[in-house]
Amino acid sequence: MTFVDINIPRAEPGEITIFIAGEHGVQERVLLLSPDPLGVRVREWHPGNWATGPETRVVSPEEIEALLDDSGRSRRRVTPPAAEVRAWLRRQSR
Question: Can you give the pLDDT at residue 35?
Answer without folding.
Answer: 95
